[in-house]
Each structure stands twice: as structure tokens, then as C-alpha cells.
Amino acid sequence: MAEQVLHRDDEDQIARAAMARRPFDADPARFRLAAEAQRISRAGAVESMAAVASSAIQPLPHQLRAVYDELVPRAPLRFLLADDPGAGKTIMAGLYVKELLLRDDVRRCLIVAPGGLVEQWQDELLFKFGLGFELLTRDLMEAPRPGTVVDQYPLLIARMDQLARNPEWLERLDHVEWDLVIIDEAHRMGVHWYGRELDRTRRYQLGEYLRDRTRHLLLMTATPHTGKADDFQAFLQLLDVDRFAGRYRSGVHSVDTEGVMRRMVKEDLLTFEGLPLFPQRIAQSVPYELTDAELELYDAVTDYVGTEMNRADRLDPSRRVTVGFALTVLQRRLASSPEAIHQSLVRRSDRLRKRRQDVLAGRTPEAPAATPDWTDPDDWEEHSTAEIEDWEEQIVDSATTAETVAELDAELGVLDELVRQSRTVRDSGTDRKWVELREMLEQKAIRDGAKLIVFTEHRDTLDYLARRIRAQLGRHEAVVAIHGGVTRPERRRVVEEFTHNPGCQILLATDAAGEGLNLQVAHLMVNYDLPWNPNRIEQRFGRIHRIGQLEVCRLWNLIAHNTREGQVFQALLGKIEEQRKAFGGKVFDVLGEALDGHSLRELLVDAIRYGEQPEVRERMRQVIDERVGDGIDELLQERALATHSIGEADVAALRKEMDEARAQRLQPYFIERAFVEGFRKLGGRMAQREAKRWEITHVPAALRQGRPVASRYRRVTFELDGLEREAERAELLAPGHVLHDAVMDTVLERWGGALGSGTVLVSDKVDSPQLLVGSLQKIVDGAGAQIASRFHYALVDEAGRVTPAGPAPHLDAGPPAEGVDVSWAVDLSWLPGAESRALEWLAAGDGVEFLQATPAAGR
């Protein structure tokens, strides 16, 4: 469609086009098979929602709208997807990736996610979309291979911090031009203004690096806005440097996110039936009082922690951070359970005695492992809960301010008394916190078989609760547990047991279960321990309050209100309850940002150290009132930037579009028919077993060569309802699956020549000879990058009239019946001219319409 000026020097490059005469002698069956392989391989060029038809998902209206109304039409893409937690942003990203792969618009894709989520991304993309992404590991980067790692593995998932902290990796990848980069939890690349300086963290610099090396960029986070407009505007520079350059000036302009951001909140999401997607969620505090003995132990340990923190203030910064971390963990274990604090005090005492022996012997005591900055919640966010649990175990028992034997003796004397007290409390059997949980276990809902998740901060408490709950219920199998030491395969097994076994009712979990697990089989949750990071509260609740939940979700927070931390939590959650009534349950989502500048951790540490001082209590009350009470409504308005809604009319339109897409010829029946025929012709062996399920007993070597294809498959299916049967899951064979694509590619390699030779087919759709001509149409930008493509057919009759033939007219035709003479069809003199007319029409008429209908082409 473009014009080009030709100069005298171009004359030698110009030649008269010659239209080759087609022999029309190809085998009709192979022609149809090759035509189907080509059509299915170019599904994205034909179907409006090809990724939906070829993925193991049931998408929802807001997900379809995000992918097909917001993401796909934008080329190149620069976008921030900021829907609420649990809205299925990973599904939207997977749909988008697969759609662009099917449209041949993406070949190299990089997904960047926090370390604790990369394997979940890998599993979701494989099991739901059939996409084989590799994890970018040190072994992969350092393995001696010809070419680059991206040449070997064009679909990669990288850990955010590992990439940001390895400049040598970025140097090795510097030449790579990505087609698509997706950054999950992108708020971790946030930046802050300090005076006139912008603190460009390593994570933010990684974002800038990737932004400048990719055609499409998708940022994903449920918390894009921290409540500071200038920081938010700086963060948006990752999408558009020029548009969001400079510092936000209040009253002069607003942060305009039109066209670069979408946000939808849970309460506004609907099903295809027009019903609310998420049920109601209710959170309430359960206050209780420590017994006299428990309170005496609490005061003694709190005094010890406060004294040691005061001493730590005199240490060098690195030791001060480590000791401070150890002491706060000790305080949290005190609030967790008598078992947790007793075991921690015993281990700490044993470790300090060993340290004393080292000092006496002249040996350098073993230094505690380095930890993140416990005063900086952002630093903690970069690490998985499994890592944090490991650090706690290593450090809480050993970090101390004591350096001399005398100082160690003094501290050990205090610890011996605390160990004695904690043993007395533990052995007394009067644990008020456990009594509150036991009463919950006696409620009718639990007796009737409802499933409950109990979150605790510490392994000792988890093991303690497991023993007591099993004794209470009288069934060992009723309780399962997940903590940081549980391997990923074992975690999957535990989730399967909890999900499918009616007799398994209680899941005990540390925050290792708060990362990426779908636990909506339960609708009841207890925070046995409240986390010191407020975002963890929403993260935990989000495990059950997510897509697929049908019951009202209830959360109980256990709070000892006669403790210093308990007073902070009670004031905070009381204020949240007030706001919940006004904002319909949306408050948890913004709690972390509402405390910006006055983190919950700081409030709790101040309460522990100075909570007896009236002025400290008053300051904490003011912070909670101002930031959570008065400030949260303003913050919700700021978070409403680029908020979208979806009404019943939108849902109806999306349903119609999806139904029309499904009605087209890229249906499982046609995919199955083409695959089975091609696979068997290539020497493969497969047999149908259960309904809609096949067993592949032999995959030819030609299909495995250079591809990650297995030699056999226990079960495969072409339809969604054939995936799950009892405990055995089948693989979905559809465009994008490596075996499916290998068959289509090999069919085209071997028999694609038939498409150029042509063949004779018979159809009852026409009553006179007609020529069917296929054409691949592409729209490219000035740099030659493909914006869109499709494969279209045209029919030409003897009079030269051209009409569109639809995406798959060969499916309505077949080989001539045996013995029928069709030699007359290839002797007609009008055929070469008819082909020229078809190509002219496809380029000048149909092609212009395609160009005009492609939104990205106008940009």
C-alpha cells in the first residue's frame, strides 16, 4: 500500500512480474491438511479471540475487556494494568502473550516477577496456556552454549532482584530487543523524590533499561499509587518518559493516565450472568486478655527487648539493624504463643552460651547472616517469606549487643529467668489465645465441614497448633500445614489435599501460603498472629477472597488488648472497621499506603519501647486517626485514577463477541481433526481412551528434534471439559502447545508445497468452476515491524467477479469422488487472469478495509 520513488539507479532491480501457471495437481487430501495447518498456525491472523479458544481457561468479562479492548489494539503497547488483587491479572497477561504469539507479533518475551512468584508464573503459563517459559537462572546464563540464552530460550521469566542486582547479566542481554516485557508487582520499581533529587533505585533502573529495549511493555500491580502524586508521576515515566517528565506540581496539573492505565476494583466486577463476581467479605477483631501469668511473662520479655534495643542504638548501623531485627522477631514470638517464645528463649540462651565459650577460647564468634533492612518494608518485599523465615531462625537466636564475657553473663542471667517463666506459662496449659481459637473450632460451620485457614507468623506456633487442633478434633488427617520449609511439590500436594479431601478441614499456614496460592475452597480465616506489614493482611485475605469464591468470606483477628502491640492493632482495626462501613470493604487494599511515612512496624516498635509514655500513645493515636481515618478517603480517590467500570451492556457485548469467536472455525473439533490426521500421517500413534481424551503412545523423532516434546503423553485433550478426570490431568492440545505446533509446522514443511501447486476440490457451495486464492496480509510500520496480519481467501468466477470466501472455505470442499474426471478444470484459459484479479482485490479492496479497521495502523 506504500508508495516509493524509483530512481535511475533502481532500474536494474525492476523486472516484469510473471504469473506462474499452476499445475493444480496436488493431492487434494494433503492440500486440505496443509491449508488447515496454515490456518490454525495463523489463528491469530484469522480469529478475533484465538487465545481464548486455545487455552485452558474460562475468561471473565473484565479480563476479556482488558486484553481485547485495552492491550491488543495498542501497538506498541505501553500500559499499566492495576486491577484489584485476585482479579486475575496473570490470566489477562497470559491471554495477551498467547494472542500476540498466535498473531506472530511476539517471538521474544520476558516476564519479570518477584522471586517468590516466578515458579507460579511458569506453572500458570504452562498449564493454562500451554506456553513453555524458562526460568532465567545463573546456570542458564553461564552455561556454554552457541549463541545467546535468548536465542535458545526466547520465552523467559526472570527474578526481579536477581536481574536488577546482576549488571553482568544485563550486559550480556544488552543487545537483545524484546518484543514484549511484562513486569509483575511493578510497584516495587517505584521511586521517591527527596528534595529535588529522584532516588532511582536499582529496580527502577531495571525498569528503565527494559523499557528502552522492548516494543511492548506491560506493567502489572494492584497498588500503583502510594498516595504521593509526584512519586506516582515519576513511576509512570517507565511508560512514557516525555509525557510524565518532571515533578508533579499540585494545583497546576493532574496526573493524567488516560490511555496508559486501567484499574478495576473487586466490587465492580461482574460475571457473564451480570452478577457480582466477588462475594462480601467481613473482617472483625476478637479481643481477649492475657492471664496474670501470661501478662507477667509479656512484661518481662518486653522489658528485656526494650533494654536491648536501647543498647543497640549505640552499635554500628549494620549490627544495629541485625540486633533490632532479632529483637522484634522475639517480641512477635512473644505475642504468638507460649510455645513460640519459650522455644526461642531456649535457643537464644543456648546460642549465647556457645558464643561465650568462643570468646573465652579466643575464637571469633560466628557472625549472624546478613538480613534486609528491617526498618524498610520495601526491602522486605523483595524477598520470599521462605527466605525471611530462614533469616529469622538464623538471627533471632544469636544477634546480641553483648561483646564481653561479663556482658554475656549478664544477658544470660536475664534469659535464664525468662526461660523459667516461659516454661511455667507453657506448662500451665492456660493459653488464652488458644481458648479463643478453640471456641471458633466448636462453631456449627466447622462442625458441618467448612474449611478454615489459620495464619501464624512462626513455625513453633504452627506445630503447637497442629498438635492441639488434632487433639481437639480427634482426627490427625483434619489438619495440614504450609510454611517456608515446605518444598514446592509438597506445597502442591498439601493444597490438593486441603482442596479435595472433605475430611481435611484446617490449613495452618505461615505467610509462605500468602504467596500465589488459590485457596477459595475455604471461606473462613483466622489471623492467629497479625503481621507487622499491613499489606500482608490483604495478601492473606486474598487467598480466599478471589475469583471462584461463592461464600461470604469471614476473617477474625485475634488481639490481646492488654499488650502494647495489641493496643496499636485494636486502634488500627477499629478505625478500619469504621471506614469499611463507609467504603464497602475496600479499605484493606489501601491500608499499607495509608500508613505511608508512619509504617505499622514503626508504630509497633515505638509501642514496645516507649508504650508506657502517655505522649507516645497520643502520637500513635493521632497517626492512626489522621492517616487511616481522615486520609483514607482521599487516598481511595487517588487510587481511583483511571478506574474503569463494567456494566450489564458491556457484559452482553463481550458475551456476544466471545460467542461469535467460538462460532468461527477454530473450534476444538477442527483442531482435533487436523492434529490427528497430520500426526498419524507423520508416523505418530495415538488412540482415544475416555470421552474427549487421547493417549499418545509414540511421538516421531522428527517432531521431537530441537523441541521440548515428550516421546509419549499419558493423556491429551482438545476440549476444556476433557482436562480433569479424577486425579489425572490431561494436556490441552491447541495452538501454542509445543507438540501441536510441531505437528502443524512439520505438515507445512512436508506438504506446504501443495498450496502453491493448487488442487481441485469439489463443493456444493458453488454451481460453476471458481478459483480460490489465499493471501497473507500484513501491516508493518515504517521500521518494518509487524503491527497486524491475517490470512484471507477470495473466490473468482469465470466472469472475473471477486467475492470474499471467509477464513476457511476449504473446509466446505473435498476431494473429487473416485472415478470422477476433473481434468477440464485445469485447462480453462481464464485461470491466470483470475488469480491476478484476486490478488488485486485482496490488496486494493480487502486490504484497505483491513488497514482501516486496524486501530494501531492509525498511530
Automatic annotation (TrEMBL):
Biased segments, Low complexity type: 364-374
UniProt keywords, alphabetically: ATP-binding, Helicase, Hydrolase, Nucleotide-binding
Occurrences of domain Helicase ATP-binding (ranges): 70-242
Domain of life from the UniProt record: Bacteria
Transmembrane segments: none
Listed CDD domains: DEXDc_RapA, SF2_C_SNF
SUPFAM superfamilies tied to this protein: P-loop containing nucleoside triphosphate hydrolases
Occurrences of domain Helicase C-terminal (ranges): 440-596
One GO MF term attached to the UniProt entry: helicase activity
Annotated spans, Disordered: 359-382
Protein name (Swiss-Prot/TrEMBL): Helicase-related protein
